Amino acid sequence: MAAPATRSLWLLACVALLAVATVVASPSRAGAADTGRAERLYTKALAELHANRVPQAITLLEESVRADPADLHARYYRAVAYGRVGRFEEAVADLKLVVARDGFIENADLELGYALFKLERYEEASAPLQRAMAQPSTADRAAAIYAMNQARRGRLAEARDGLASAESITARYYRGLAAYRAGDKAAAEADFAFVAQSSPDSEIGKQARVFLEQIGESDAAVFRLHGGATLEYDSNVALAPDDDAIANLYGVSDKDDFRSVITAGAAYSPYVTSRTHVSLSYNFLQSLHFDLAEYDVQTHKVGAQVALFRGPATIGLTGQYEFSLLDFDSLAHGVTGFPWIRFEEEGLGRTEVYYRLRYRDFVLDDFDPLRDAVNHAPGVRQIIDLGAPGRFMMFGYRFDAEVASEDVGERYQYNGHQVEAGIEWPLTDTMNAFAMYAFKAKDYDEASRGRDDEEHHVITRLEHRLNRFLWLAGSYVFRGNYSDKANFEYYRHIVSLGLEARY
Amino acid sequence: MLRAVLAAFVVLASTFGATSALAQDAGQVVSMEGTVEIGRDNVFTAATVGSPVRVGDTIRTGNPGRARILFQDDSVLNVGDGSVLSIDESVFNPDEGTISSMIRLFQGKVRALVSEYYGDSAASYRIATPTSVSGVRGTEFIVAHDVASQTSQVLGLGGRVAVHSVMDLVRRGVIIRPREITFIAKGQFPTPPRQIEVTDDIYRSLVSGVEFPGSGVPEGNADKDPVVTGKEVPVDDQPGNVPVQSEPGNDHPPIADIPPQEPGKTGGDIVGEPIPVITGPTDLEIEF
Description:
The complex is a heterodimer of chains A (503) and B (288). Helices cover 36% and strands 39% of the residues of chain A.
């Protein structure tokens, strides 16, 4: 039998063990207290949030999440508070946890999609926004953001299907935008009219009215006119060989000159629908050199075109008759057949594929029949949008075969391969810049005794819109033809400044 | 009808029964959904988020109608659908050690999340129903009262809750621990506490509807964005900046000639070769 002291010690140890065991065996107490604390903290934070004291709310919410990291309400409201101060990255992290517990907070998908949209993570935002659109309680708000998100992705057409049952003015505005962009003016008009009538004084209502006016104007815009007067400096009007000895031989040394170039044109579209355009055009050009009278060129072009809009594809057939004069003497006439197709790729840009078939018949003795030829030029070009209207890059390739009509012209027959790259970049709302480089390798017929040329083109153009109809345009063009026959090797720089009117 | 009569009675009763700080805000509505009304001076007005709640106020919720009230002592009260209650007492003077709350539930269901201030033995947090009074020391619990059966239920969620019948507020009470429930019928004492599983229908029924109001559609940022609400339209989406595939003028063919602009054209460009070479002496072939 144990001594009383020993028994007391045993008893004390047992009591202590029991106390420890009680604490350890009651984990829910500590967890429950933290859970309750977390809930009280985020409730308090909510009051701060309503009072627009966001930093205080964030402090409470961070404490709340620390108290119970599993509390999704705390995380949801912390995300909301983060969003209020633009901390969307942190908001996304919290919202992803909330969304992972499917349906716990219906708003979570909407808020996650919205936060990702604000972070310009448009692709990632699509899925939660689509889920939010499937829930009646968030469908309309989600539809509006989804439409904007898809517009930023360049996939507005996709959004149009998703917005079929949208009712909010924002969603209807974007549905109208999608229809407008696709050329479905009747559908666009219905949506913009709804927005303009439902909310006439709001900004979105005002913009919808402007769209309605534009739709009315565009229906009537079947005439287009353009004209321009340009002053140009051309360092090599005659395309004189670079070699001075050869240039002297041909009497074309120092053939640089200023010239004025007058252009004018008109287009008339007798048949315009959202699916078909038929247009007729006439274009005129006259260059008048300051010193070198024998190089003045005049051209007249009469054209007709049918363009069919079929979903993302535009299919066109352009035909043109051209008549040229050199120094006011008939130079040449010719016809061009030009089937083409342009395929819009939402989110990327567009692809153009074309085949230009041109026949030229020279009438001026110097070139007839030497340069009479058929030219076949199939080509493809990829235009890549760079995230803003009018901002794009392009890359292209064109095969070019010149086939002489008469044997005498065989030495000017060639097969050419041209690659090109360009960029267009609006600098301001009224100023636009364009730059392009093209390289063309021409392998001439055996009759040329093995002539091979390499052409380099650099084109830069800056245009400034003065008002609705007038543009001021400046450009620099370089053309260098490197040939293994020195009499065909030349360089040329053209600088121009012109005023253009377009209506 | 019964609810309206009950509410009118409650308003009168609470007007005379309120004990302190009549004009002071006891708390505020921080979240709600459905119909929630606050009765004050015999007039009920619709509550909104941020509405103050005062001692003597009657809160009534519709079906649906849920509210979360944050009290100045950091306690939180979630009011379920179809409930009527009054704030009989709300004293919060922690410096003076006087902290007490008395809420009277006439009908429906509430979930109380009692703040840590009530851990002090001098503090008192009570929820009374027509058949029971529940007092707590820093805990979380649900009290429900069914008018038809004149029975109250108290479910413990955390901590301990002392539950008494209104017939004897001192003796014959029971202590409810987490996941224990007691029933108090009219004219009777609380039933002995019994364990209840979270999967039990009674547990589910009690917990349902007193979760966080707004859990379905709580507020967020998306509906406050001026672009989403149509107050602003991004520049890219305004007329003039939206390319239209089939707009007249957008049917131009691809650029096939380099340079694309007409200016710069000379006779040589049309001929396709340097004119002087072609028009020069044909018997001359200069090779280098």
